[in-house]
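2024-03-11 09:14:02 DEBUG pipeline.ingest accepted 1 chain
2024-03-11 09:14:02 DEBUG pipeline.ingest length=377
2024-03-11 09:14:03 DEBUG pipeline.predict start
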Amino acid sequence: MHYRTLGRTGLQISEVSLGTEYLIGKPHAHIGEVIHTALEAGINYFDLFCAEPGFRDAMGAAFAGQRDRVYLAAHLGAAINEDGQYLKTRSLKLCETFFEDFLTRYATDYADVLILHNCDRQNDFDALFRENGPLGLALRLKAEGKARFIGFSGHTVETALQAVESGYIDVLMFPVNLAGNAVPGKKELLKTCQARGVGVVAMKPLGGGKLLQGPRTVRMAHYQMGGEAQQIKKNVPITPVQCLHYTLSQVGVCAAIPGCASVEELRGVLAYEDATDAERDFSEVIADFAQYVPGECVYCNHCLPCPAHIDIGQTLRLFDMAQQDFTPAIHAAYDALPTHASDCTACGACEKRCPFGVPTVARIAEAAAFFRQDSQD
């Protein structure tokens, strides 16, 4: 397992983490088996929004004795109604009641990340971020030591961007997947997160499982894409490894949190860690259903091999990140590359292979000039 820094929190979290929604309603022993398999594989970040008491008891038992090696993300605004069904709430009383219940059932004194839950509309955002609303409650809980960091989860670029620019949140949960690559404003959102040190935890990397269905036309809902719902025509099979590689290649993304209902599904996503470059290649997939902007690099490395041995996708990813905020970590990552943009011979072989019309030679030249200027400074 590889680990990435979760933005300004400084937490080192597993790049493949785990969403637990699909474990709701499963037997306690089944839940324990999935969680223990995840822990054995090195997964250390878990998203835990469900407020159902039996589920929380099962999860609490699964994490018994493991609290010091995991990061737990709780949600402020997720509750259950009198019938035991999921309820999104902005009631401060319910929010605090179910958060305290979380602490009790998970046998912990704090949540590592306390996420302002599921906000997509402007009026809901305004209610959520009032000083005397859930944001104010989250800030108080943080001051009391019951939450280390504050997060926000949503599915629309507009509200997510406002949350990031507010300065209050440390972590953004947002859908990042192949189907939503061309959603307007999404890449600017991710770049803003990177510039402001807000760690991105990418939900729906498998599109709620729809991306894994056989060749067919599927309807992707807005919450599965982070943009307007649309029909996606798939002509080729897509694997979990390809989905995860796309998600983890995007600027600002610190972890992907696929939901896994079984150990078998979990092992399918864990295969990413040992996958070959060929198995990870998603260029054919994304080109197949035209979810890209012509001329824009998606960091797929379909342009390789490079005669100068430049890792083009990673070079351009670091260059794009550096345009927002040239941190020491980006500087070190670029310096650690075995070959640099300045080694480019402008042979043009990369552009002939690129399915997306990226002017790669010119972009690599820009990267070379940028990093060369930095070294001179």
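2024-03-11 09:14:41 DEBUG pipeline.report The CA atoms of residues 242 and 280 lie 5 Å apart.
2024-03-11 09:14:41 DEBUG pipeline.predict end
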